[in-house]
């Protein structure tokens, strides 16, 4: 299954940094999945469901230079290792934050997000070794996931796919428009989930 964001000029907010979401097939059945909503809210985004792809270009549907792409890394950097106030960091091969990440972040053409439960996301990571060729990005959110009140997250720094995309784009885009638009969508999803009579949300 492949779904794409709306073509440029036809819905969704404009974004420079392309967002590619790799979704575990089982996540499609999740009541409060956010990946499809995130992709629909951006002009330059793509959602693909599956377990493995030969390379970035195959997953993206067009040629791409993996050196100019980042992936939201499943590992974490200890907050003490990050500069105060750092919300996005680039990890080197040694697992330590890059001393000067800004040139790397400014040069990114796109980012890859893994969509699913923690174990499903790890499955996607290990089944797609080409992800190791991408820049590893780690998010250090300033607050717990908003969606965590409805869908339990495995750890404090875990975010829903939509929230992770919003936080990343806030630091990668020239302006806040894309990030703000995604958070508006998140608010609508949360409000809809809380409506009386809606089925209970699973963990």
Question: Could you characterize the architecture of this molecule?
Answer:
The chain has 203 residues and is of the alpha/beta class. It has one domain. It contains six helices and seven strands, in the order ββαβαββαβαβαα. It has a seven-stranded mixed β-sheet with strand order 1-3-2-6-4-7-5. Helix 5 runs antiparallel to helix 6. The two termini are 25 Å apart. The N terminus and C terminus are likely disordered.
Q: Identify the quaternary structure here.
A: single chain
Tell me the β content: 15-25%
Number of distinct helices: 6
Compute the average pLDDT.
Answer: 82
Q: Give the N-to-C terminal Cα separation.
A: 25 Å
| Number of structural domains | 1
Strand order within the widest beta sheet: 1-3-2-6-4-7-5
Alpha carbon gyration radius: 16 Å
The low-confidence runs, each spanning 5 or more residues with pLDDT under 50, are 1-9, 199-203
Number of DSSP E strands = 7
- What's the story with the biggest beta sheet? 7 strands, mixed
* Helix-strand category: alpha/beta
How would you sum up this structure in a few lines?
This protein has 203 residues and is an alpha/beta fold.
């Amino acid at each position: 299954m492949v779904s794409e964001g709306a073509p440029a000029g036809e819905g969704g907010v404009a974004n420079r940094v392309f967002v590619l979401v790799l979704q575990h097939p089982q996540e499609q059945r999740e009541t409060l999945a956010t990946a499809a909503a995130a992709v629909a809210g951006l002009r330059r985004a793509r959602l693909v469901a599956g377990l493995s792809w030969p390379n970035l270009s195959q997953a993206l549907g067009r040629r791409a230079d993996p050196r100019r792409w980042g992936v939201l890394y499943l590992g974490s950097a200890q907050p003490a290792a990050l500069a105060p106030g750092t919300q996005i960091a680039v990890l080197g091969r040694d697992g330590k934050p890059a001393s000067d990440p800004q040139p790397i972040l400014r040069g990114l053409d796109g980012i890859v997000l893994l969509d699913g439960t923690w174990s499903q996301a790890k499955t996607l990571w290990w089944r797609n070794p080409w992800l190791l060729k991408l820049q590893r990005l780690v998010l250090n959110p300033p607050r717990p996931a908003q969606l965590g009140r409805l869908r339990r997250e495995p750890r404090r720094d875990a975010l829903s796919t939509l929230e992770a995309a919003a936080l990343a784009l806030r630091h990668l885009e020239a302006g806040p428009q894309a990030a703000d638009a995604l958070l508006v969508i998140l608010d609508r999803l949360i409000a809809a989930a809380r409506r009386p009579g809606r089925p209970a949300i699973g963990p």
